[in-house]
Amino acid sequence: MTMTAETAPATVHMQEPDLLQRIKAKYFATRIDAIVSVAFGALALWIIWSLLNWAVFDATFGANRGDVCREDLHGGACWSVVSTRWRIVLFGLYPFEEQWRSGLASLVMLGVAVLSCIPWFWSTRRLPILWLTGFAIFYVLMRGGWFGLVEVTEQNWGGLSLTVFIFAAVSILGMPLAIVFALLRRSDLPWISKTMALIIDTIRSLPLLSIMFTFAIVMPFVLPDWAIGGKLYRVIVGYALFFACYQAEIIRGGMQALPVGQEEAAKALGLKCRHRIGYIVLPQAFRNALPPTINQFVITFKETSLVTIIGFFDVMASGRAASGTADWNFAVIEMYVFVGLIFFVFVFSLSRYGAYLERRLDTGRR
Amino acid sequence: MPAILKNRRIRSNGFQLAFVGSILLMIVVFVTTAQTNLAAQGLTSGFGFLQQSTGWRISFSLFEYSTSSPYWHAILVGVLNSLFLGAITLPVATILGIAVGVMRTSGNGMAELIGASFVEIFRNIPLILQLLFWYTLLLALPSPREATQLFGGVVFTGRGVYVPGLNVTAGSVFLSALILLSAFGAAIILRSKRWSQIDGPYPIRERRLLIAVAVVAAVVAMWLGRIPETSLVSIPVQKGLNFKEGIRISPELMACVIAISIYGAAYIAEIVRAGFNAVPKGQSEAGHALGLTGWQIFSRVRLPLAIRIVMPTLINQFVWLFKATTVGIAISFTDFFMVVSTAINQSGQTLELIGILMGGFLIINYSIAWVLNRVNDAIKLKGTQLRI
């Protein structure tokens, strides 16, 4: 015991420089480094200080009426707009008494998203079951009409729950579509692979907004009456198609990284085509393509906000509406910051998770 | 199963036929339904409507446009506005992105911290939200009466930013821009020659001469295109409730430029960072050994190598960023997409206009990718230069 007590500090000291030395090495290594550090540090402090001034010290929290808040303003933020009108941002026009359903439904989908980050769920059976069950619960809760719940039609959906709905529907619809697209594009039959390549490349070079717009406004014009469906569902289909084209290229990249021997070995063992794809090719392709896939989900979640341009009442649009009344119209920035924070929390945690996964998979492969 | 279906060739041909046939069938259904719908509305399909006058106004246009201008003028205005926005935002985003990427790999803790915060904040919030944020801030700037004029006559107001401009015709500006662009293009081609004839003469003098001649020619073109009886430089002056003279940059354009540049820069910074990390350490060590200074190692060794490594990724990013400019419709910036959607509302010629929109984007995106791929081919490292 005494031996270790005597030797331990010395070895620790050798390996790890103390805090002061580390700071010196990181911020003040050379004279230029010191200047840069001080300059950037001053800039950062100034930005943080002005932000704090605006958001905390000069801000108004208590007022629950717009005119009171406006009079209290000393150039700071008016957070009362959030505390009084957050329900619109989260639930949109959903009936007040039923809003717990909307909130619960979003929590269920959030739970599904968190659960699917656990490797135990990463199988061709468990993951689809998880998402489909979650989505079904979400839909029943939101739509109602069963189990004694009052029916609330899609027109009244809004806010964060609509964003979650669009994101979940696009993922559930888009992922199988992406796998099909990737397989068709990789097909040995030249006409199928070339046609698919043309479709994928064309859709990929168009802006998402124009695809959504086409499906929302133009599709009723060219579709036979029975296939028109609701505007929301058309936009979801269009977005899913767009998602599938990007995701198909990611999956194809993952397949190309597979050694040819894998599929040849499966063939030699006499596996059928669907078994080869389902048990050999796809699992490995997804493992290769996991980081870009998560990145794609991040982008997809962020870009659901574009539906506000097509005229849907998602979290973005409801944020604008919440501060759009004459009472609160001076507090738009506060509302944008609030909505931005909602997006940031989701997107940041998902992208951090993706980065963690990338590191983990990378070390596993070496 | 009948024997004929077991034949591999017949089966695969059948699959292909069914696949392509069903897609063609879908297109046929679309077109026939559209035609019956058009007939019900009393519209005729075709591109004749492009000659009719529009009857609506466009707030921002690079050339003369009025309500009596035909549809194809309006669409051209939209295309030019989109290209104009892209031509500003792509370079700004690249420069800002490289700066932040350098900060993140500089080894200085404070710079890395600021660079990382920049990337994480602006990459994780939707572009449209950032756009509306900047737009709201720009509209909240003081009114022209209360605004103070900064050095050089620049003034920030809620109605736009006023900067000094030149009293020259639009044609001469276009001509000089064309001269400069083609000169730079030629310079890049000359540069690529250098690699193909490694023992040939080094064409740096020719390149410098070319650029110098082009700059002089551009200035002359501007000078010849002066609008008579005005001073060459026009500085914004306050007149009544507004500013006159100079160039007004509308809040819409300004917000689009700020938001898209920053959003793009956050992504480009990550790409550039990956590029710097991929440059082998031996390269900068070799630079040290040769006695180069830190700045020389950065500007002559690490930056050129990093840019070459990430060029293919950057090209994809540029195409993506150009597509992202369509988000300007959220604040009514009249770009290609906005003009087409307004035209659809006004004329009802849905299919034709969607066709124009898609065709336009395909052409523009493929051109961007094609030009940048040529640049990439010209500057990329040949052979095994990076395997160290």
Description:
The complex is a heterodimer of chains A (366) and B (388). With 366 residues, chain A is mainly α. Chain A has 2 domains: 18-52, no CATH class; 88-365, Orthogonal Bundle (MetI-like fold), CATH 1.10.3720. In chain A, 74% of the residues lie in helices and 0% in strands. Chain A is built from 17 helices and no strands. In chain A, helix 16 packs antiparallel against helix 17. Chain A is globular, with a radius of gyration of 26 Å. Chain A starts with a helix and ends with a helix. With 388 residues, chain B is mainly alpha-helical. Chain B folds into 3 domains: 3-40; 71-154 and 250-379, MetI-like (MetI-like fold, Orthogonal Bundle), CATH 1.10.3720; 165-234. A 3-stranded antiparallel sheet of chain B has the order 1-2-7. The mean pLDDT of chain B is 82. At the A-B interface, helix 2, helix 3, helix 9, helix 10 and helix 17 of A face helix 2, helix 4, helix 5, helix 10 and helix 11 of B.
Features:
heterodimer, A: 366 residues, mainly alpha, MetI-like fold, 17 helices, globular, disordered N terminus, B: 388 residues, 3 domains, three-stranded antiparallel beta sheet, 12 helices
Oligomeric state of shown chains:
heterodimer
Query: Helix-strand pattern of chain A, N to C?
Result: HHHHHHHHHHHHHHHHH
Secondary structure tally: strands of chain A: 0
Termini gap of chain B: 60 Å
